[in-house]
Amino acid sequence: MKTLTRCILAALTACLMSSCGWNEPEIAPIRRVVLFYGAAYSNLSSSIEQDVQELTDGSVSGVGSSDVLLVYTHNTAQYRDFTTPTNPVLFRTYKDLSGKTRRDTLVVYPDTDVSSSPEVLHKVLGDVKDLFPAKSYGLIFSSHAKGWLPVNYEDKDDDIIWLSPARSPDTRELGTENQEGSGIDIRSMVDAIPMPLDFMILDACLMGCVEFAYELKDKCRTMVLSPTEILKDGFIYTAMAERIMNTSEPDLQQICQDYADFYLAGKGVSPSATITLVDCTRMDALADVCKDLVAAHRYELAEVPRGNIQPYFYNELHWFYDLRDVFVQAGISGDELARLDEAIADCVLYSFATETFFGVRMDRVCGLSMYFPYPDKQELNNYYKTLSWNKATGLIQ
């Protein structure tokens, strides 16, 4: 049924693009396609639904524009109702000739689809590519996440590190949706994305890790990421469409600045945020520098007290440390640090952090996190050896 629907849709789209009438604008060739992908069958459902509303209420393109904004959402029927199946939907949003925002449903997917899985991500992006061939693609991915960690990984030890009093803020951290089979291994994302991306915006916790950016460096040119958790409010969508649509280049730095300004203006615990803009095309040089530093200071790295290194976590997520500070604490020389700083500056185009993140000071952050290995975590370390970053740097042998 879905295949038939897609065929009918393609035929209608072709008719629309070839027809003309007194009140119809000329349809320009497609230049850029941006997909908002909301894997929201979780406690984030209402938050992501609000994000979609703010995004589509913003300055979306007109019906005759060469830029196309698409939205894929999979929400729960009611808040925290994880028993009622719902259908994920792909739709196009635009303003009609009267200026009213429209949503045209393109595909209704089976309610058995698990959005937070590489198979469904690949299927949806394949549909986007088939329906809207374009020169440029961008992806906004919104869901739970846990950085580079393996899907469903749990620390079985009791030696949990707590850096501040236990709290339970509403964030986008937990890793998966509330469906069996959910979770996307960062290694599988490379094959799950069937086209090169000009940019990717990750509205998901802890994705500002060097391991993720390096894994996808040949698939995506630039990324907006957070090395810490992200509060449930997420990114600032009210102006996002105008930052990335109908411009010669998407203004990703302004998207980062919008994010920084929003959380700086918050009260209570909400002034807790980090954001990083990465040029993935320049990450090989960073890997080369880190490879040399690892080889030269392997003994010193093993002796660094873990508590001395700048963390990006405040709770049990004790896998995310500042990349630069890892090597600083290992005692690298001034010349080595200058080389490292140059490599970081080349690929980190923008970095912001509030003074603290839920009580943890953010005063020695470069914008990218990195795993600082635990020698006794054999299962985790064996997995880490399979990541491209470890293969390039030799961090764990």
Q: What would your notes on this structure say?
A:
- There is one protein chain.
- The chain has 397 residues and is α/β, with parallel strands linked by helices.
- It has two domains: 27-154 and 168-282, Rossmann fold (3-Layer(aba) Sandwich), CATH 3.40.50; 285-347 and 367-393, no CATH class.
- The chain has 13 helices and 13 strands.
- It has helices at residues 2-18, 45-57, 118-131, 186-192, 210-215, 240-244, 252-264, 283-296, 298-303, 323-329, 334-347, 378-384, 388-393, and strands at 32-40, 67-75, 89-95, 101-108, 136-142, 197-203, 220-225, 274-279, 321-322, 348-353, 356-357, 360-361, 369-370.
- The strands form three sheets. The chain has a nine-stranded mixed β-sheet with strand order 4-3-2-1-5-6-7-8-10, sandwiched between helices.
- Helix 3 packs parallel to helix 4 (186-192) and helix 8 runs antiparallel to helix 11 (334-347).
- It is globular.
- Residues 1-5, 7-26 and 158-169 have low confidence and may be disordered.
Task: List the main descriptive attributes of the protein structure presented here.
single chain, 397 residues, alpha/beta, Rossmann fold, 2 domains, 9-stranded mixed sheet, two-stranded antiparallel sheet, 32% helix, 18% strand, globular, disordered N terminus
User: Widest sheet: strand order?
Assistant: 4-3-2-1-5-6-7-8-10
What would the principal axes of the Cα set say about the shape?
Answer: globular
Helix content class: 25-40%
Q: Secondary-structure element order, as H and E?
A: HEHEEEHEHEHEHHEHHEHHEEEEHH
The whole-number mean of residue pLDDT values reads 88
Number of domains: 2
Q: Mind telling me the C-alpha Rg?
A: 22 Å
Spans of at least 5 consecutive residues with low confidence: 1-5, 7-26, 158-169
Strand tally? 13
CATH topology of the largest domain: Rossmann fold
The CATH class label of the largest domain is Alpha Beta
What's the tally of helices?
13
| Main structural class | alpha/beta
> What distance separates the N and C termini?
50 Å
Q: Characterize the main sheet.
A: 9 strands, mixed
